[in-house]
Amino acid sequence: MIEVAVCEDSEIDRGMLEEIIGFLMTDRGLEYNMTPFSNGEGLVAGYKNHPFDLIFLDVMMNEIDGIETGKLIRQMDKNVEIVYCTSSSDFAIAAYEVHAMGYLLKPYEPGRIGAVIDYYVQKHPQKNQNYIEVKSRRKSLIIPYKDIINMESDNKVVYIYTTTQGIVKVYNKLDVFEKELSDDRFLRCHQSYLVNMNKIESVENDFTMKSGDVVPIRTRNLNEIKKEYYNYIEYRGNIAGTTKRLKVFYDKVGGDFEVVKRRLIDEKYVVRFVQCFKNDTAFNELKKALNEELYEKAYLCAHTLKGSSVSLDFGKLYKASSALTETLYNINHNGEDCDKILIDKQFGEVAKEYKNVINSMQIIEED
Question: How far apart (Å, rounded) are the C-alpha atoms in residues 201 and 14?
């Protein structure tokens, strides 16, 4: 079991990271437990009672930042792996000083996160993925769950089709493997076949696998088996309509739906996190901080809003919030004079594009 912590002050970025990590861990057959934190204080406070194996840690956070949080964690645990997450590469040297295992740039990409997880598993084989161990041609082989495409039984022989080791011939019964593979992804679809549902491309009267192979479905239970598969992938009959509405929405907010879909893996996650943006407090906190002339706090809020915008590819809002973030950064860190007229103008652009995003959400909320 891998104990994973996700520490990120942006609710949207934290949720996206949790979903991507969870998907990738499950796809790799890894057993894990994930705990979210919204700030470094919470992570540090409970660490002695609940240590972790792998921490995804945001750099830019209120109160104590990710670098300081990492240093405090290192005082308690020299072995935990820390992966820093940020929208800037400026903190790479500081991350190195904490002996971080990795460094992820926002917006998050599943491929990069997957590479981090694979590297962690390689470094810590005792935390390795679920697998079966079989004997084939007098050799012992380990086959991870994630590599199994399907199994085919022929009398006393089972052929295991894999993505990495080709076809493995084993003298055994399919019933034995069905019991051993205690994982929801595997489905007994026929007396002689068992499939990994993550490897299915499409279904009609048979399963067509992503490898191109066709696996038969037991005729008398065709509807029940197809329903079980649909339930597994959370099949939605209106997915085409959802895709069309998301494309219209992203045209309005200046983004690219296909980019976000690749980043978040599936349309349902895109919808979920776009709708979560309505509950994000960064805009209102930014407005309040500017009214009170708290420019350091305003900078952090603008940076958070910028981060959420780039993660969800709200292009117009990202452009507006980036300009304001840069102005506030120069005031706080480069000693530039405070130009209230410029700040008001830039915040006006942010407010306009924020309202555009919120109003455009009606498009994807239509029945």
Answer: 30
Contact status, residue 53 vs residue 127, Cβ threshold 8 Å = yes
Scan for tokens 């491309």, then name that residue: 201
* Strand order across the beta sheet in which 32-37 lies: 32-37, 2-7, 54-58, 81-86, 102-105
Predicted confidence pLDDT, tens digits, the chain (367 residues):
899 999 998 888 888 899 889 888 887 778 889 999 999 999 999 888 889 999 999 988 877 888 899 999 999 999 899 999 887 666 656 656 677 888 888 888 888 888 898 888 878 865 655 778 899 988 888 888 888 999 999 989 999 999 989 999 999 999 999 998 877 889 999 999 999 998 999 999 999 999 999 999 999 999 999 989 988 876 444 455 678 888 999 999 999 998 888 877 777 788 888 888 888 888 999 999 999 999 999 998 999 899 889 889 999 999 999 999 999 999 988 888 889 999 999 999 999 999 999 999 988 875 4
Sequence-ordered alpha helix ranges (H) in 165-311: 174-180, 222-232, 239-253, 257-264, 267-276, 282-291, 295-311
For the four alpha carbons of 332, 336, 340 and 343, in that order, the dihedral sign comes to negative
**317, two tokens:** 């809002």
Within 8 A by CB and 6+ apart from 136, the residues are: 168, 169, 170
Backbone angle region of 137, left / alpha / beta, with phi > 0 → left and psi within -120 to 50 → alpha: left
Q: Assign residue 166 a region: left if phi > 0, alpha if psi is -120 to 50, beta otherwise?
A: left
pTM for the whole thing? 0.58
Q: How far apart are the first and last CA of the chain?
A: 41
Of the candidates 108, 180, 115, 189, the residue with the CA atom closest to the CA atom of residue 152: 189
β-pair type (206-209, 214-216): antiparallel
Phi-psi sector, 63: left (phi>0), alpha (psi -120 to 50), beta: left
Q: Are 184 and 148 in contact (CB under 8 A)?
A: no
